[in-house]
Amino acid sequence: ASFARIAEVEERVKAFLTLDEEGARRTAAELDKQLAAGGERGLLFGLPAGLKDNIVTEGLRTTCASRFLGNYDPIYDATVVRKLKDAQSVTIGKLNMDEFAMGGSNENSAFHATRNPWNADYVPGGSSGGSAAAVAAGEVYFALGSDTGGSIRQPAAYCGVVGLKPTYGLVSRFGLVAFASSLDQIGPLTKNVEDAAYVLQAIAGHDERDSTSAQVRIPDYISALTGDVKGLRIAVPKEYFGEGVSSEVKSAVQASLKVFESLGATWEEVSLPHTEYAVATYYLLASSEASSNLARYDGVRYGVRSSDADNLLDVYLNSRSEGFGPEVKRRIMLGTYALSSGYYDAYYLKAQKVRTLIKRDFDQVFENYDLILSPTAPTTAFKLGEQVDDPLTMYLNDILTIPVNLAGIPAISIPCGLASNGLPIGLQLMGRAFDESTVLRAAHAFE
Ligand code: GLN
Asked: Which residue ranges does the record assign to the Amidase domain (predicted)?
C-alpha cells in the first residue's frame, strides 16, 4: 500500500532521496514468516516507516542531502534503526532534508526540493521536510526526523502532522550524523499523537554508545494518553506572540486555549524574558558545533573526493569546496570564526552563558506550571523560492522552536487549524525535561 501510494503522489511531493522497495518487501516477508511460525507482533509490527537521510542505515545510502555523502553506504545501523527493527516496522526509504539539517525549507537539499503536500507551490518546512511531507501525503505510516532548532516541529506544523522533539538524551544519537551535538535529537513525525507515543516508546532508552544518553526509566507513554487534563496548569509566554507572529496563527493558538479550558485545564500568561536572545545564541552555538563536527569531511574518510587535486591540501580544499552547499559553508565559516582565539570569549562563551539564562527562564516557569503553550512557527508555510536568498529571515522563522533545544526540554507540534491560504497551523506544547508523558497526554486530549 505504501509503494502504491508513493507511485501515485511521489512525483509531485518528492519526499524521498532513496527508496528501498526490495529491502522493504524482504523485511515484510520475513515478518510474515515469523508471525506464521507463532512469533509475537512487535510494537510497530509491519508499519511502513521513512527515515530522515541523516540517520545511518546499514547498506542503505545515507547522504544528509549533501553531494559530499552522495556515495555513502554506511556499514552499520543507527541505534534508532536497530530499535525500529526490533519493534518490527518496515523501512521504506530515506527522506529528503536540508543539507546536514541546516535550514527550514528543504530548499538546501543538494538534490531537489520537497513540496508541501497541501499545496505544491509551498515549502514543506525543514529540515525534516521530507519526513513531514511523506507522512502528510500518506506515503509512510510514520517517519523519524531530527530536531536541532525546530527541524521536526516546524515541518510538522507546515504539513499538518504531529512532530515530537524528545528531551535531550532520551533517544540515542548513535548513528545520527552530527550537526550540533548538544542540541540534536531524533523524534517521530506521525499522523496523530497516539502514533507518536508508540514510536517514542520504541525508540527511547539508554544507549551506552551515546555518551550523552540519559539513564532514566522509560515510562509507558501509551497508557499516559488518558484524555484527562483536569487541573493541568498551562503557561502562555507573552514573548511567543510578538512581532512577526501572524494574526491568523495567534488567533488559532488562542482558540486552542479555549479547548483546554473546556477540558478543565487552566492557563495564565507568563514571561520568558531571554527569548529575544535565543536566535542569536542558537546560530552561534549550532554553527560552532557544526564547524567542529563537519571537520571530519576531508575527502579521505567519508564520501566524495575531488578528482581535481594533486596534493593533500587540495584534497581537503577542493573536496570541501565541491562537496558542501552554500548554507553549510556559511555555517562552517561563522562557527570557525566564533571559535577562533580572540573571539571565543566574546561569542561562543557569551552564547553559552545566555543559553544558561534561557534554560533558567524555563526552570522558573515549570516551578508553577505543567506545560508551556505557544505557536510552533510564526507563520504557515511560505512559497518555494520566497526566502531562499534571505538567510536572516529564514533564521528568524525558528524563534519559537529554538529555545526548547537550548533548554533541552521536550516539545510537540500538533495541528490546530487552517489559515485562509488553506495551509495548516501548528500548536506547540513544551514540557519539563523527561516529562514526555504530560506533553503527549495534553496533546492527545486536545486532538
Ligand atoms: N532551521 C534551523 C537551522 O537551520 C533548525 C535546523 C534543525 O533543527 N536541524 O539550523
From this structure: 1-440
- Distance CA(287)–CA(282), nearest Å, equals 8
Ligand 1 atom at minimal distance to the Cα of residue 148: 8
Dihedral of alpha carbons 205, 130, 7, 196, sign: positive
How many A from CA of 150 to the centre of ligand 1?
Answer: 6
Closest CA to 157 of 264, 66, 248, 56: 248
What is the atom index within ligand 1 of the atom nearest the CA of 398?
A: 1
Question: What percent of the chain has pLDDT above 90?
Answer: 96
207 in ligand 1 pocket by Cβ < 6 Å? Answer: no
Distance between CA atoms of residues 235 and 266, nearest Å? 9
Rounded Cα gap, residues 413 and 426, in angstroms: 6
Angle of CA points 219, 225, 229, to nearest 5° = 110
Q: Is 0.95 exceeded by the ipTM?
A: yes
Cα of 225 to ligand 1 centre, how many Å?
Answer: 30
Query: Mutate which of 54, 99, 102, 331 to test ligand 1's pocket (most atoms within 8 Å of Cβ)?
Result: 102
Give 251-281 pLDDT, tens digit per residue.
999 999 999 999 999 999 999 999 999 999 9
CA–CA distance, 277 with 98 (Å, rounded to integer): 24
For 374, what's the count of Cα atoms within 13 Å in the CB-facing half-sphere? 30
- The Cα 157–Cα 169 span in angstroms is 24
Distance of CA 262 to the CA centre of its chain: 31
For the chain, how many residues are written?
447
Does residue 286 carry a pLDDT above 90?
Answer: yes
Distance CA 246, CA 262 (A): 25
Which amino acids are annotated catalytic?
52, 127, 151
What ranges make up the beta strands (E) of 238-310?
Answer: 266-270
Distance of CA 128 from the midpoint of ligand 1 (Å): 9
C-alpha cell at 102: 541546516
- Residues with Cβ within 8 Å of 237's Cβ and at least 6 positions away in sequence, in order, are 269, 270, 271, 272, 275, 365, 372, 374
